[in-house]
C-alpha cells in the first residue's frame, strides 16, 4: 500500500467518524418535487422515485419534499397517475424521513382560491395519506388565505410551515414595499398563527447573499421559530446565498441531489455538505451515500427524462433573472406562448411591459399563480392592445384579482384598471376587502353530483373540483370509461435506447440499413419502381421471394370526419358571467382555414382562437342567437381563462370543439351567421 493511499484511507476514516457539530444545518431534499418540477416540467413518475426512495431515507434529511406545487396537476394531466396514490406508494419506502408538501394556501394545489370545504378536505386527505409538513404559501403573502388550511393542519396534528414569498421591486432588498421591515412583520404574523417553522421562499433566485445574511440574522433576532431557506439557483447566486444564510444562523436549507440541481432548480446538497465539514454547522451527512443515490439517478432514471431538459443553452445561469427578475418557469411560459403565436420577436416588449402590469396589479410577488396571471396579461397587452385602448383582453383571473378574490395586494391595484376589469364582472363591481374564502360558496357537494355515477371517492371528488376538465378526463381513464392515449404512457429505458441508436445512426449517415448478406438471384417476378427522395432519384427493384408478387393498393386515407353539429356539450360548463363586459376582440382576420378544420362547412363569420390553448367551455349552443360582444367560449391559455366574445351578432352556426379539446392559434372555435 503506497503512503499516499494510506493517507487517503485515513482521511476517509476520520471523515466517517467526525464528531457531531454543535448546531448542524438541517437539510430538506427537493429532488422528488421541486427538482423535477424545475428541470423537466414535473414529469417525474412515481416508478422512477422508488429506486432511490429507501436510500434517501437513510441520509438523515430533515424532510423530503414529495408532493404539491405542480405535481397534482401534472400527474393526472400528463402522466395518467393518481396523485394521492404517489403518497401512499412512497410512504412504503420512506418510513423515517418526514414528508413535506408545497401547499398554495387557499389555492390548494390549483390556480385560484377554492372554497373552505375544498381546502379543508384536501388537507385532511393529504394528512391521512402520510403528509407530515405542510409548507404553506400565498402568492400575495396575504395570510388570511392560510386561516382555513392552518386550522385543518393543526387539527390533524401536523407541521405548519408558514412561507413568506421573497419578492423585490429593485435589484436588492429594500425600497418602498419589499424591505427588511416587510419580512420581519410577516414573520411576526406567522408567529401569531403558531407556525412551527418559517420559510423564506425565494422562488426566482433573487436573494443576494448579503441580503440573505441581513434578513436571516434579523429573523433569528425576531423569533425563536426555526427559519428555513428555499432559494432557487436560477440567477446563480443561491450557493453563495446559502453559505451566508448558514453564517447568519439559518436552521434549515433546501437542496437537491446534484443530478437534479442547478439551472432553475436548487443548489446541490453535496458541495454544501463538503463545505461545512468540520465546522459547527456540519450536516453530518455521509457523502458516499449521497454519491450512491446519484449513480442510480444518473443510470436508471435520468436517461428517461433527458429529452425534457432544456439543453438549448450552454450556460446554466438564466441571465434574464438578473436583468428582468422574471422567474425561470414564468419566462419559459412567456417564451412558449409567444412562440406558439409566432411572436417570439416581441419578447423585449413583454419584458418592458411586465413591470408596468405588475405595478398596476398591486406590485404582487411573482409566484404561481400570480406569475401566470401577470405574465399572461402582459402577453395579452403586448399582442392585442393598440393606441386607443389599454388592457383590451383582460383574463378572468385578472378580473378575480381586481375583485379581491386572491386577497390583498402589496399596494393598491390601479383604480383605472380595477374599474375597467370589474365593469360587468359577475360577482359585482365593488371589490371585496374580506378574506376571499368568506365569499366563496362551498364546492364539494356540487362536484359530488357532477361526477355521480363515475365515483363517490372523496379523493377523486377533490381532484375533480381542483381540475374539472382534465380531472374528469383522468377519472374516465381511471375507471375504464375511456382508453388513455399512448402519449400518457411512460418512456422506458428500452425506448430511450432505441431512440439513441437511431440518433447515432442518423448522425453517422447510416439511417437506412444495407443488408449485410450476399444478394440472391433476381427472380422473374422482380418489379422495378422509381423512387424519388426530394430531388434524388433511385431505381428500386422489388422481388417477392417465392412466387407471385402480392400487389396491394394503398388505401387513400379516409376523409376527415365532418363535425356532427351540434357537438355534444361537456357537462362541466363554467357559468357564464351574468352581465359580461367582454373586451373588444381582436378583429376577426380572414382566416386561411387550417386543413382539415371543419369550420368551412358552415357559412358565416368565424371566431378564431386568438392564441393556442384548451377549450374550457362554450356558453352557447348551435342555434342560439348572440349579440356582438356576448361571451361565447372560454379558452384556457397558460393556465389563465380568457372569455372570448362574439365578433358579430347572429346565430351560432357551428361549434367545432368541446370542453377539454386543445386548439392552435386561429383554429375556428365557432361560426356565427
Ligand atoms: Co421552489
Please provide a brief summary of the model.
The protein is an alpha/beta fold and 673 residues long.
SSE topology sketch:
Layout: H1 3-16, E1 26-29, H2 31-40, H3 50-57, E2 63-68, H4 71-78, H5 83-93, E3 99-103, H6 116-128, E4 133-136, H7 147-155, E5 159-165, H8 180-192, E6 197-202, H9 209-222, E7 227-231, H10 238-247, E8 252-255, H11 269-276, H12 287-301, H13 319-324, H14 328-340, H15 347-360, H16 370-384, H17 396-403, H18 415-422, H19 444-450, H20 458-466, H21 468-478, H22 493-507, E9 527-533, E10 536-542, E11 605-608, E12 613-618, E13 625-626, E14 631-637, E15 640-645, E16 650-655, E17 662-663, E18 668-672
Parallel strand pairs: 1-2, 1-8, 2-3, 3-4, 4-5, 5-6, 6-7, 7-8
Antiparallel strand pairs: 9-10, 11-18, 12-14, 12-17, 13-16, 14-15, 16-18
Helix pairs in contact: 3-12, 6-7, 6-20, 8-9, 9-10, 14-16, 15-16, 17-18, 20-21
Cobalt (II) ion binds next to loops.
Characterize the structure shown:
This protein has 673 residues and is α/β, with parallel strands linked by helices. Among the domains are: 23-304, Aldolase class I (TIM Barrel); 581-672, OB fold (Dihydrolipoamide Acetyltransferase, E2P) (Beta Barrel). It is 36% helix and 14% strand. It has 22 helices and 18 strands. The protein has an eight-stranded parallel barrel with strand order 1-2-3-4-5-6-7-8, surrounded by six helices. It has a four-stranded antiparallel sheet with strand order 11-18-16-13, with no helix packed on it. A hairpin with a 2-residue loop joins β9 (527-533) and β10 (536-542). The longest helix has 15 residues, at 287-301. 44% of the residues are buried. Residues 548-600 have low confidence and may be disordered. Cobalt (II) ion is lined by residues 34, 203, 230, 232.
